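Sequence in, structure out. Go.
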Amino acid sequence: MRPTRYLPATLAALALSTSLPALADDPAERLEADLRALFAAEGRLEIGEVSAALIRDRVTARELHFVGPEGQQLWLDRYEVSGDYDRPDEVRIEGIRLETPGHEQVQLTAEALVLDVPSRAVLPLHEESWPEGVRIAGLDVEALAAEFAGQDLGEGFGEGRGRVSVERLQATGLSREAIDSLELSGLEGQAEGEGEFGRGTLSLAFARVEGLRGLQGEEDERELDRLELRDLAIDSDRLVATLAGLEVDGDLQDGEGGVRLEALDLDLARMIALAPEEERTQLRMASNVLTGGSGTLRLDAVSTGRWEAVDGDTRLLGELDITAEEAFGWAVDADLPVRLPEGVEPAAFLAEMESLEGVTLLGGRVDATLSDLGLFGRLPAVMAASQGISEAVFVEQARTQARGFGMMLGPEIEAVLTGLVAMMAGEASELTLQLTLPADSELDALSADPLALPERLEMRVESR
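Output:
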């Protein structure tokens, strides 16, 4: 059982139940009856007292203690409903503690959980059971912490134990199918698993998702408008990395989307030290080539895509810029006029695109530039040493091989390979490809036979 399974079920159990017909007009009696109905099929519930405020609409249940059939226990200091009981302004739960015994153990605490304008004072236990139209305008959880053991921690970790804490979690527009926004801050986690990643820690200063839809469907059917992460750090037995920021814009209805990756630092030296001993030599060689001996690789990336509708056709424009500090740079600029399958809207097609079937290319261009920031200058020494030859001999052999491939695959391929050799020899620092694409071509047919592309498009290669 995954530890994340407890969070939605537990948060739900703090404020949700099967709402039965009112047994009395007194809100206090209704609240007690609904809370007891929540746990009636699951175990035993004790309530210290239930009272209604005299001055304003507010009903409060205090000192709740639930005992489940397998020994799980839940304590709530206070469960308070404000406003009209049938249309509450707010439901507030304070002093939350959960404990589950046995092999799959969980201890969860939270200072307070607030539901803003829920559809009911008490809702079904699981969100899957919510009636159609049930909605919560806002959710606010403070000081959430959990410890767990005997849990399936997911791929790479296997079964293990750990703990997680969140300073604050907020959400808006919650329903069975979607969440308008979800935001958390101050996430700290630690896990010890039996899988490949072993033990590790994770911290995340801030995360926000917007427009999450399709929660009741399969995982690959879910859609997300926007994702933002800030100050992520992972330190495990197989991965040591920090990330300053990540932004994903997946909403293409406005005509554009993209991804921005800011300062992903991979501590290759630490990861190599944690790797099996028989793998370290090859990994250290690769690290030295990529990082120049520093042992740390920093990646920055920006990818943007736009679409424009022009006279019934669609123009796709995209840019990609990847920089591996002290290693290489890769930039791509594309402008592709295409004809989509009849009756298909561009935003919907691009959001759900799984293949290029039915897309007709109307020409266009793709410009790509590969820059040497140190990687290519380090390659000859490493490759020559691995073959027991000098760097000069290695470079000459590489030139000969480039000409040989050119004779088989054409002058364009030879120009690309010769440009790469020139970068390794220090004769060039940049390789540029300019592609002019054929009109009235099926994109899936082009992508299925990449070796035939030089004959079907116009390619210009420059190294400088």
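Check: The chain has a mean pLDDT of 86. The first helix runs from residue 6 to 15.
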